Amino acid sequence: MKKESFIISCIRRLREYGEGIVLADQSISSLKDVVKSNVYTIISLSQSSQKDRREVSAVMGLNPQQSEVTNILEIGEGLIRLAGRYPFAQLLSFPFAKPNNITDKELDEINEKQELIQQLLRKVKKRKKQERREEKKTSTIKSYHKEKDLLLDIYYRFDVASTKRADDLGLSAEASNRIYKFIEREQLVEPILLNLTGKRGGLSKYHTLTNKGIEFINKPAIKRYSGRIGAKHHFLQRYLKKYLPVRDFKELSIEKEFSGKRIDLFGKYKELKIAIEICISTIHTEYLNVQKDLDKCDCLIIACPDKKTKEKLEKHIYKKIAHDHKVKICVVHELLNKPEALIEDK
Amino acid sequence: MTGNNLLKKPKPNFNTSVSSRFAYRLFKRPHTRQVSGDIRIGYIKKWSIIFGLRKKELTQHLLAIGRSGAGKTNLLRLIQLELHRIEIPFLAFDLAKYGNRYILDYIPDLIILRWDKEFFFNPLMNPPGVKLKEWLMAFTEISTDLFGLRTASKMFLTEFILKLFEKYEAGKFATYPTMHDLNCELEKKLKAKIPINERGYINGIKSKIKAICITLEEMINIHEGIPIEKLLEYPVCIELVGIKSSEIQIWIISLILAWIASYREARQMSFGTLKHVLIFDEAAKLVGKGEK
User: Fold this and answer.
1) Considering only CA atoms, which of B68, B92, B79, B6 is closest in space to residue A80?
2) Torsions phi, psi of A249, nearest 5?
3) pTM metric for this prediction
4) Given a cut of 50, is residue B292 above it in pLDDT?
5) Where are the alpha helices (DSSP H) in A61-158?
């Protein structure tokens, strides 16, 4: 059984409480049958559609000749039929109530002067401005609460992958996804994709804070040793500096300067001076670094973010310079996991 | 010029065409007493008989049908003038075009309330004498029906509003939560960790409530609106012209209709005495076959 709409049931109930309803529409066929069958008075003005004329004739009980009238009615003429008192259709003319135009401005003035409207308006209890402000304030703070937490975590623990970070902060996959999307879209962070473990399973996503992101959490800027390097380069410098000491590297310093030439990362490994250059996209010019750095260290390691870059670099570099056992080209995870294999390999 | 004069001296604006003149022959001549009534809406030109409706008959409703430009708005205007003459208050709605404000010259005490200026309505406030929970059921029924939300959404919506009522102690004190409060509550809920299926339902409700809040802004951002029970004592027109979403227009009208129905039901029956008339142009939006 089809459920009766709430409005129809309201209209049905209102009759008993002295509420009259006047309905008007262009097409009778678009109305529900229950409406057509439940009205006492039906007035049909001029109809143009065949379907509507047929339906009007049926509802009003017109004979074929009377039905013809439905589409020749002039403006202001119509047929009326009552359900009880006079149950026959009748042709009526309606007087014309000439409308008088009133603009919005005029209506403003009229309503301002009308005491009754002013009285009614005085009864309206609006929401207090303070209430609205407080709500706005709390909603802004609350809406960025988790985002800020995440950004602060990135600030203090730059070296943690995004999934682990979300886990540590107790965020659900959906929530973390939404927050990461938000901070990336708002350019508060720059995403970096890297495989730093060398294991299978694809790339992990890390994030570095942009200047906008640092401003957002109101923290001092992170020291950038050179203004020209990209986010990935900067991230790898910091990452290697943090994790290479675990592999017996000592005295590591970023952007170590030797008579005007800076080395991305410089340190010592078992008394050997090690220079590390990070190659992200400078494949064509990396050989210049090699030439300049070689005399300053015992071993030069060029760390690439992935295998593809490494292969490209090898191809390019050995076109320009001869093979040298002091120069090692590797992927970052090789340096992080087995530096001894690299350095001691003759 | 009053509505009374209009019917006494009909202006010869209608040059009855040949076909129309012939048409009068097809209809029987009624006896004057058969068609006389308090609400005089037209006249049978051939026999100079005024056709009127009795007050009691209007409680059984009236339907006017006609193509655009056939004179529907004029007919509604006439009915309003006649109702005013016999001192029956009415409530009309303007949805697509202004029509009712143009009779302000005929009915100087007509109250015209524009949705963005003078009309304030809190759908979460129950009519006087109606239980809060009863009204809540009517509200959720209309909102979920109209916006095509599922039964589960109705349950969640009811739960949210009940929480809000508790927070505002709506039954005890005369402060009611607003639709904006409801929107905030839904937003808060969505920020929390909730099961994915629940999130789907709440999202569905929130999108509709938010659309209402954004569209109607100040009209519903109030704890207490204009007392509708007061409006039922005067000739009133509520102008909803400018609300581009007909779904939201119908939502407001349906709630007002339900509000009036609940308010009347909480009072004594009138047994057919006409107290008030509701006038709806574009009725198909409200009671049409396509209505959800």
Assistant:
1) B79
2) -80, 145
3) 0.66
4) no
5) 64-69, 104-113, 115-122, 129-156
Residue with tokens 């942009």: A210
**H-assigned helices in chain B:** 3-8, 18-23, 32-35, 55-58, 72-85, 132-146, 151-168, 179-191, 196-216, 228-231, 246-265, 284-287
Residue B210: alpha-carbon gap to chain centroid: 23
Of the candidates A116, A292, A242, A265, which has an alpha carbon nearest to the alpha carbon of residue B231?
A116
Q: How far, in Å, CA of A101 to CA of B221, rounded? A: 31
Query: Helices B196-216 and B246-265 meet at what angle, rounded to 10?
Result: 90
Asked if residue B61 lies in contact with residue A19, where contact means CB atoms within 8 angstroms, the answer is no
pLDDT in tens, B161-181: 988 888 887 666 667 888 888
Q: Do A11 and B257 touch (CB under 8 A)?
A: yes
Higher pLDDT, B50 or A258: B50
Among A316, A255, A322, A321, CA closest to A281: A316
A73 touches chain B (CB under 8 A): yes
d(CA B183, CA B200): 16
A277: β partners: A302
Question: Judged by CB atoms within 8 Å, which residues 112-141 of B form the interface with A?
Answer: 112-114, 117-118, 120, 138, 141
Q: How high is the ipTM of this complex?
A: 0.89
Q: In chain A, which residues have pLDDT < 70? A: 1-4, 129-144, 225-228, 346
Give A 93-152 residues with CB within 8 A of chain B. 93-97, 99-102, 104, 107-108, 110-111, 114, 116-117, 120-121, 123-127, 135, 139, 142-143
A254 contacts A276 by C-beta, under 8 angstroms: no
